[in-house]
Amino acid sequence: MMHSAMVWNEPNNKSHWDPEVDPDWVLFAETAKLAGEAIRAEGSSVTRVLGGMSPIDPLFLQKMDQRGVLAQMDAVAVHGFPLDWNLWQIEEWPAKVAEIRAVTELPVWVSEVGASSFGSEEVQAWAVGRTAGLLRNASPSIHWYSLYDLPREWEATTRHREAEGSSYYRHFHMGLLRQDGSPKPAVEAFAEHGQGLGICQWFHFEDHRLADAAAWLKRLGVRRLRTGISWADSFRPGALGWFDRQMAALEEFDVTVTFCFTPEHRGLAPHHTSAPQVIEEFAAFCGSMTRRYAA
Questions:
Q1: Coil, helix or strand at residue 144
Q2: Residue pLDDT, tens place only, 96-153
Q3: Closest by alpha carbon to 147, among 83, 248, 218?
Q4: Strand partners of residue 8
Q5: How far apart are CA 125 and CA 269, in angstroms?
């Protein structure tokens, strides 16, 4: 069941938090603090994690510390994809984690790391083993992104598709499994080198892959899973039933639940990346989900 709660996803990335609405993360800091307090009030044993930074930025984290956010967190997280989007090399992973450890005493999780098979499935398989070797002693919690390729009929969660150009299509090839569920060479590499690694897998509303995903996670020996419960989805008809089914299917795993995505009608701007009109509403959502799903 719910082992830890992550407050937002990539808050310093404009695909997930709108800098035009909140250019210096003042509103985000207040939102994250209240959410951390609400999670702690409902689940004293739940580990609270500040949403993974992308890019990895010590200055952003220091700003969050100065605004009191880290006082309401038990860990911080980073995301990195050096073979796909980042302007640094895969061998720099330990140094990137060390940059963050230098500015906080909190544990540093790597809550998303991965490699696309867009160019080569063999390169992706190599990246599994190399990443595991580089990070295993650098971070206490590592989540490989992801189990499944993103279906081509869906959109990748990014607000700058045009700027990414052809790199946008890498989003659709991050899985150990293809869209149809067939395994790539990376599955064998994960089975060989991924001992102790978790998986990050986002599930869409009423996702048809849920049961098969749970079966694959067991087959691969994965204990730790990171996924999300969307505040925006909570306004859909039948949302609570879907959340219950999702968490029931994942009850055997140590689940990190990421709380994020603003409902369009509750944002300062009508988009899921917007700061909320009323930040207490997001905190209340985090608290209610923690009360419902924390062990």
A1: strand
A2: 999 999 999 999 999 999 999 999 999 999 999 999 999 999 999 999 999 999 987 7
A3: 218
A4: none
A5: 41
Residue the block writes with tokens 């940059």? 99
The residue whose two tokens read 């999670």 is: 39
Name residue, tokens 């020996």.
221
Count of all residues that appear for the chain in the document: 295
Decide: 56 and 100 in contact? Cβ < 8 Å: yes
Q: In this predicted model, what pLDDT tens digit does every residue of 237-277 receive, in sequence order?
A: 999 999 999 999 999 999 999 999 999 999 999 999 999 99
Alpha helices in 43-92 (DSSP H): 58-66
- Residue 162's pLDDT is 47
∠ CA 76-273-154 to the nearest 5 degrees?
100
The predicted model scores a pTM of 0.96
Between helix 185-193 and helix 121-135 the angle, nearest 10°, is 20
Tell me the residue type at 62: Q
Pick left, alpha or beta for residue 65 (phi over 0 → left; psi -120 to 50 → alpha; otherwise beta): alpha
Read off the amino acid at residue 77. A
